[in-house]
Amino acid sequence: MRQKKPALVITFSSTTAAIRMEAFCLEHNLPGRMIPVPREITAGCGLAWKAPTDAQEQLTQSMTQAGIQWEDLRILEL
Amino acid sequence: MIYLDNAATTIQKPPQVIQAVAEAMQTLGNASRGAHSGALQADRVIWIARCKVAALFGFSHPERVVFAANATEALNIAINGLFQPGDHGISSDLEHNSVLRPLYRLEDQGVISLDFLPADALGNPDYKCLESLLRPNTRAIVMTHASNLTGNLVDLERVGKFAKAHGLLLVADVSQTAGSIPIFMEEWGIDVLCFTGHKGLMGPQGTGGLCVAPGVELRPWKVGGSGFHSYSRTHPEEYPTHLEAGTLNGHGIAGLSAALDFLQEVGVDAIGEKENRLLGRFLEGVRQIPGIRLYGDFSQPRRCAIAALNLKDVDSAAVADALMEDYGIAVRSGAHCAPRMHRALGTESQGAVRFSFSWFNTEKEVDAAIQALQKLAQE
Fold first, then answer.
1. Which regions in chain B score pLDDT beneath 70?
2. Which residue out of B28, B41, B43 would a mutagenesis test of the A interface target, given it has the greatest number of A Cβ atoms within 10 Å?
3. CATH fold for the domain made of B15-266
């Protein structure tokens, strides 16, 4: 497996909310990509947005301004 | 074949619709099932389609655009999910069975009571009767935007204002108008808008859905796979998944999305105007034929491009069969799943022959239909 590194992980209440986040980030040139939700956040399935840890402020500010709600936001070793 | 049954489904689709479906069938995984590129691509295609549907209908909440297999499924989701035991509902004589049967079933089960806005001799709803149908327990009005038999438009804005003034919800069936008539869900006060993808929207069969205004909560009638919250015993509450259990028709939705691009490029107004021009030409021709009786209100400035007619007292099925067999013209006879409308027009026994036009029809085809009717009238 790949060596683990700290990463920002943001989860959403639904797949649609997650994919909306992806579209928003692509449109505004914000960093990150979609990953399966890690088990540290929730067991089972679903999508999460993974981004560099130093992008936290930029992402949360942009999401807040755009009215995008997230369910959980954590720094995880992935 | 000259295809003039576009109110049932549009056969001729924009080429990009077919291309999009073929491409989707080679590239899309299962939306919301995983984070690999195939699944994500399906998520993206479906999200973009939700945004286009919302934009088409003047709805600012694409996350509350729910996809279903067709308008009947969408209406079942809306009607069964909305009414509570003891509620009263109002509908109209113009409705298709996709509205009537879910309502009748609830009524027959003793869950709700119903009243219907009557239609006048031209097939228009008698709006002034709305007030008299109100009851203290009236919860919602379920109404079509146009009769699938006559093509008459319903003034949904007027019905929406009435609903809001009396604290009622408005469920609208826009199956016949979407793609040909501009629709403004929020402006008109529609709470749940049900649509199909394969008629005027020119998408594939097996597509459709409903737009659910914020604050309106519908009980899901099916629950199951969602791709998230998998260990929860209950289906997710979040829209649109709340009403979308099971794998979505990603391939069909990709085609619908391409069809919505086509509508955007050409313009709903331009499409409706062309269809109405073809209808006008047809009406001008058939009005000259002795023995033809038309049904509907053709004084409406904007209507669906539908002409329902009968030839003398000939069975509508015989006329439709002769048109197909002898002239290669496809039309729809019989009851058109609109029993109350036929009763109101007095055509229950004879049925009617319905001609319906689309963007892809031509004046030449319209003229061929007129000539065929002229010949049939002389027989």
1. none
2. B43
3. Aspartate Aminotransferase; domain 2 (3.40.640)
